[in-house]
Amino acid sequence: MSSFDLLNAAIAAAERAAAFLRTARRPDGPAAWTVKDQRDFVTEVDRTSERLVTEVLTGRTPAGRVVGEELSPALVRDGLVWIVDPLDGTTNFLHGIPAWAVSIAAAVDGVLQAAVVLDVPRGERFDAVRSGGAHLDGHALRVSSIADPAFAVIGTGFPFKEVAQLGVYQRQFAAVAAATSGIRRPGAAAIDLAWVAAGRFDGFWELALAPWDLAAGALLVREAGGVVTDLEGGDDILRHTGIVAGNPAMHVWLRSVTQPD
């Protein structure tokens, strides 16, 4: 199966989940939320979205395996693996904040091949295939060309589950804020990375992400001419890790100011 075939399967799965999410009723309050971890929630909406995605992917690729936060949080690398976040930005969704997405990536033997990030509230579909470029609703994407941090807008995610890292993060935040034109935090890593690919953000960093948070977005950035690594500069990001992303110049600078202590 080609990377384009994998992309078409991912698009079909994402669009099926998005159709459900557009009409899904938000739970009335915390009594209907399941607490997975500190400040981290899941609802029947997440579970239904993941089931719909899984049905499409396994129907089109019976030999593929689907991993995601709710279904199978242990990432495998051999063969075809679908890395899925059926509702990235659950907390935003629960509060009616319009920044959440369906994120689906396909990896073969640990190498990303195809990806979709469907920003449901905005109706924007970002997709990419390995060596085939990244696109937004059919239009080619390119990371920004800004090389001077003074003109850059940087995306980030707070370590809301890893509170022990707040001290490190606050020092990084201060360094980035002092040198750039702004920092933004939509609250969904898939959207953050899609916006880096689209040139809306010049860079992005976060200290603790899961593979399903970052897999699809990482391929988008790389296929749009950008760089995504872990905090130490390694290319293997299909694991629980922190990441730095951006156009090539901004990635170098952002890594320099977010080096682990």
Structural overview:
The protein has 261 residues and is an alpha+beta fold. The protein has two domains: 3-140, 2-Layer Sandwich (Fructose-1,6-Bisphosphatase, Chain A, domain 1); 149-257, 3-Layer(aba) Sandwich (D-Maltodextrin-Binding Protein, domain 2). The chain has helices at residues 3-23, 44-60, 90-94, 166-179, 189-197, 211-223, 248-257, and strands at residues 34-37, 40-42, 65-68, 80-88, 101-108, 111-119, 124-129, 133-136, 139-140, 153-157, 182-184, 203-209, 227-230, 241-246. Strand 1 and strand 2 (40-42) form a beta hairpin. The model is unreliable at 35-41 (pLDDT under 50).
Care to give the gist of this entry?
The protein has about 260 residues and is of the alpha+beta class. The chain has helices at about 5-25, 45-60, 90-95, 165-180, 190-195, 210-225, 250-255; strands at about 35, 40, 65-70, 80-90, 100-110, 110-120, 125-130, 135, 140, 155, 180-185, 205-210, 225-230, 240-245.
Helix content: 25-40%
Order of helices and strands: HEEHEEHEEEEEEHEHEHEEH
- Give the structural class: alpha+beta
Indicate how many domains the architecture comprises.
Answer: 2
Tally the beta strands.
14
Determine the N-to-C terminus distance. 44 Å
Indicate the overall shape. Answer: globular
Q: Major sheet: size, sense and barrel closure?
A: 7 strands, mixed
- The Rg value, from CA coordinates, equals 17 Å
The top level CATH class name of the largest domain: Alpha Beta
Taken as a percent bin, the fraction of beta residues is 25-35%
Overall mean confidence score, pLDDT = 91
Instruction: Record the strand order, biggest sheet.
Output: 3-4-5-6-7-8-9
Count of individual helical segments: 7
Q: CATH homologous superfamily of the largest domain, by name?
A: Fructose-1,6-Bisphosphatase, subunit A, domain 1
